[in-house]
Prior knowledge:
Blueprint: E1 5-9, H1 15-25, H2 33-41, E2 52-56, E3 59-70, E4 75-83, H3 92-106, E5 111-114, E6 126-127, H4 132-140, E7 144-155, H5 163-174, E8 177-181, H6 187-197, H7 200-214, E9 222-227, E10 230-238, E11 241-247, H8 256-270, E12 275-281, H9 283-288, E13 296-307
Parallel strand pairs: 4-5
Antiparallel strand pairs: 1-2, 2-3, 3-4, 5-13, 6-13, 7-12, 7-13, 8-9, 9-10, 10-11
Amino acid sequence: MSGPVSITAFDGVMLERVIEVLNASLTADPMDRSMLVRRVLLDPSFDPDGAPVAHVSGAPVGFALAIAPKPDAGLGYITLLGVRREHRRQGVGSALLRHCESFLADRGCRECLISPYGPGYFTPGVDIRAYAGGLEFLVRRGYKAGSQAISMQSDLSRLTRPEWVVRRELELAQEGVCFAPYSPQCLPALFRMIRSGFSDDWERFARDAAARIELGDPASRLWIAQRGDEVVGLCHHEGARFGPIGVVAAQRGRGIGHVLMHHTLADMRCAGLRVAWFCWSSDLTAARLYESAGFVVRRRFAVLSKEIGP
């Protein structure tokens, strides 16, 4: 290292340099300007003071991002932490981490999670294989793995709709459950469903998806399951990214999710997409739902947490 580490809050003029740092350090997760702007700068919870940039001899060599969305809930998040390889093991990562933890603690956060922040996460945790060194770094500083998450991918050229799914859709139709792409008429019932048992982030995503459809995106981006006037399930994709998918608690275990999933995947293939992928699930859900559509595990993440306040 050619000089001491200095930490400054993010400033817009640093945007391109920060992207360079992230692409050089978090090599399994390519970053472009649009992604950083949409998921970071346009996030209502973004605070430049929680986005420290590490400099050595005037050059950015590291970046981290801490988010305190609801300080009264006591939870804060670190969603990005990267240091250029040639500057590792020289105190840069430690300085960034201390800054993030102090930022969160000052805003009333008692626990820091890496990195399952719904509105703007890049990955649900630390990739166990790609960032083994980063995982070790965090564990040494008091972070503990509470759970694991997996990302999966399906080869759409091999997609087949199981006969039992076809039969189940017919049976569900006889029970009054129908499946169709988005229409604006379903919006009131859709939001009632989301507010009855899903997080605030689901409503944000549904509003964004509906707005994009009304501006010209295909309605089949968002499949809806309805029973009478009640929306009981939804399934969504954006490009090759599949999900989210959800069914109201009272209707789970009836095959509604499987039918929604196969309609969505079939439309993705018809749109010319070769693969479908998503970032976040559990092994239990993978076995219960996704493996039936050919999804296989691509990456495995450790979801970490640490107590940082009283």
